[in-house]
Amino acid sequence: MVATAKIPQRQLFIDGDWRAPALGRRLPVINPTTEASIGEIPAGTSEDVDAAVAAARAALKRNRGRDWSRAPGAVRAKYLRAIAAKMVERKSDLARLEALDCGKPLDEAAWDMDDVAGCFEFFAGHAEALDKRQNAAVALPENFKCHLKKEPIGVVALITPWNYPLLMAVWKVAPALAAGCTAVLKPSELASLTCLELGDVCKEIGLPSGVLNIVTGLGHEAGAPLSSHPDVDKVAFTGSYATGQKIMVAAAPTVKPVTLELGGKSPIVVFDDVDIDKAVEWTLFGCFWTNGQICSATSRLLIHDGCMVQKYQGVRPARGRLQAWASC
Q: Which intervals hold domain Aldehyde dehydrogenase (predicted)?
């Protein structure tokens, strides 16, 4: 049963080990189904961010980069595949934690864990492919020679949301590690349990210390100092438009690159040759998948005026070639 899943008592994952937050504070884990407190996560602050970034920087440079950032992609791929195997092994427990933490159905959480493992496998392949593309010749006019060398950007800050807690974190973690970057992951304080378990997996498979660090905590206490940290080389964020603005401002003084995936409306386009029953079915599926808490929810319709949508209660035939309206 999901309700009986044990909540691990974790600390922050910094420099390959568990570390209590500098100020000793913790945050409650709230089960969104019952609104009951079911556990705690550490509440990291700027002091912990400093320690995590320092660990990531040391891991990037260790042994002149030969341990990680300048190691062959095949070396990094072995670690990524080891993580993937552990994710498969722990799938049942991780899915239960995910369902408890963010409220999604257990089946959906289990599918997410399959995708988590698949993501690590996918980027392991890309890490290996990097070796073949290194020092590729670039065609230039006579008397010139040029070769292309790909290098990791450095220490990256990864700030992720609560609707796909582990999967969306891994979408950032796996490619960053495959490229040879070292990282500090700051998951949403609303759903951090499975991201902390990723730290446990990394410790178990022997990922070099400092390559991945995980700092949980509130956005303004952990996320903000991470975004503005002078020793972070890039920030990747998925979340709200308002927070994305703040991250861009925080990154501006050091002119660090920022990748943002922000909120928005995702339309579904319905043409006049469509099977209306299937269009309705897939629109409802898109709206309510992951409890409707998804950035690609089909909550906006663009409908061709040839569609006989008036047969469905509450949906009017479009006026003009295309008509758009929001359903919520």
A: 18-307
Query: What residue spans define the domains of the chain?
Result: 12-261, 264-327
Look-up of token digits 């899915």: 95
- Statement: residue 219 has pLDDT above 60: yes
Tokens of 262: 């922000």
Mean pLDDT of 31-57: 96
In angstroms, the Cα distances linking 140 to 54, 137, 144, 146, 262 are 41, 9, 6, 7, 40
Q: Which residues are catalytic?
A: 261
The pTM for the full model equals 0.87
Q: Is the pLDDT of residue 209 over 50?
A: yes
